[in-house]
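Because showing beats explaining, we let one protein speak, sequence and backbone structure tokens together, and leave readers to judge.
___
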Amino acid sequence: MGEFLRAVAGFPGILFSAALPVVLCFWLLVAFGGADAESFDSDADARAVGLGGVPVAVAASSVTVVGWVTSLVGSVLIGRTALTGLAHAAADVALLLLSLLIAWHVTRHLVRPLAKGRRAKERASTLGDTARG
């Protein structure tokens, strides 16, 4: 348990651990009607980073959760090595970058089918509106 807590509270896990309650609170607000899942879509465009087609909140949540899990696993593995000092710090920075890359890649593959389904629904509703009008 101590190893897990050190991974959660240490670098780079703490960056994702700090974002996780924000994500959780946002989705609780959505669940109870206090916010809309597409609240951030007018402010940010996930297509710029290859995550378009789903609400920005979905993509950001996925990146946060996958990055958190990846950084925790990596932190535990780094902690079990004999690295100290600068080598340990370099490994932690590399883990942060790797966690972000893995999280982006996994999220990209997760949102692709959702985006296709969403585009198909939008096209169908647009065609239905056109046929009625």
Observations:
- The mean pLDDT is 86.
